[in-house]
């Protein structure tokens, strides 16, 4: 299935299409642009026969809009902000916030640094300073072991925010979901790696 054709037509179509259609288009974009097979070393240090570069989707014009629409619909009603560990989550939290603004839902985007800022306020979290107890959902592009999003959760909680949920675009099914369950976090993924691999074979 081809991604929506011309740039202007596709953006208009994504803005109004049903979420089921958007999800299928997003799956195809992952297969066409982000998924590769070969010999790779992941950020966790594990070796893998495949690799998913989520930024090929989240930094794609149509991809960002699709991601924003899908993830916004998955947020609980009480969520007031979305956050994630830089760099992978940066375009995702912005996409959700911008789409939320167009859909008349105010969702603040927060970026969690891996290390404290070396100057000025030396902050770990960039974005609006929200009241203590604000409900925040952590977003991720690809979850493997789950450690990246967990680090974001811990930093946000130390800052006084209420964080109970992690949502990822892709679950590699390599321990992340189990880690979140162990830590008492709710976890959802738009796609599992099995679903992406099956669709990739269909398109190949």
List the helices and strands and how they pair.
Layout: H1 7-16, H2 19-34, E1 35-41, E2 47-52, H3 55-58, H4 61-74, E3 81-85, H5 90-102, E4 108-112, E5 125-126, E6 135-143, H6 147-158, E7 162-171, H7 176-182, E8 186-192, H8 193-203
Helix pairs in contact: 1-4, 2-4, 2-8, 4-5
How large is the count of helical segments? 8
Uncertain runs with pLDDT below 50, 5 residues or more?
Answer: none
Indicate the proportion of strand residues. Answer: 25-35%
Biggest sheet strand order reads 5-4-3-6-7-8
* Shape estimate: globular
Q: Helix content range of the residues, please?
A: 40-55%
Question: How would you describe this protein?
Answer:
The protein is of the alpha/beta class and 204 residues long. It has one domain: Rossmann fold (3-Layer(aba) Sandwich), CATH 3.40.50.2020. 43% of the residues lie in helices and 25% in strands. The chain contains 8 helices and 8 strands. It has helices spanning 7-16, 19-34, 55-58, 61-74, 90-102, 147-158, 176-182, 193-203; strands at residues 35-41, 47-52, 81-85, 108-112, 125-126, 135-143, 162-171, 186-192. It has a 6-stranded mixed β-sheet, sandwiched between helices. A two-stranded antiparallel ribbon has the order 1-2. Strand 6 (135-143), helix 6 and strand 7 form a beta-alpha-beta unit. Helix 2 crosses helix 4, helix 2 (19-34) crosses helix 8 (193-203) and helix 4 (61-74) crosses helix 5 (90-102). The mean pLDDT is 93.
């Amino acid at each position: 299935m081809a991604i929506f054709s011309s740039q202007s037509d596709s953006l208009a179509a994504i803005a109004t299409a049903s979420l089921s259609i958007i999800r299928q288009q997003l799956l195809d974009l992952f297969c066409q642009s982000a998924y590769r097979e070969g010999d790779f070393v992941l950020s966790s240090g594990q070796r893998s026969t495949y690799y998913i570069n989520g930024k090929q989707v989240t930094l794609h014009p149509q991809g960002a809009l699709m991601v924003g629409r899908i993830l916004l619909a998955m947020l609980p009603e009480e969520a007031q902000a979305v956050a994630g560990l830089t760099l992978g989550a940066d375009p995702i939290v912005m996409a959700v916030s911008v789409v939320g603004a167009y859909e008349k839902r105010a969702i603040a985007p927060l970026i969690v640094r891996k290390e404290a800022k070396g100057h000025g306020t030396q902050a770990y979290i960039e974005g609006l300073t929200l009241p203590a107890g604000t409900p925040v959902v952590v977003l991720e592009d690809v979850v493997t072991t789950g450690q990246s999003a967990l680090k974001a959760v811990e930093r946000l909680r130390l800052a006084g925010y209420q964080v109970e949920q992690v949502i990822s675009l892709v679950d590699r099914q390599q321990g992340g979901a189990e880690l979140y369950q162990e830590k008492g976090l709710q976890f959802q993924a738009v796609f599992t790696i099995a679903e992406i691999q099956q669709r990739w074979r269909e398109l190949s």
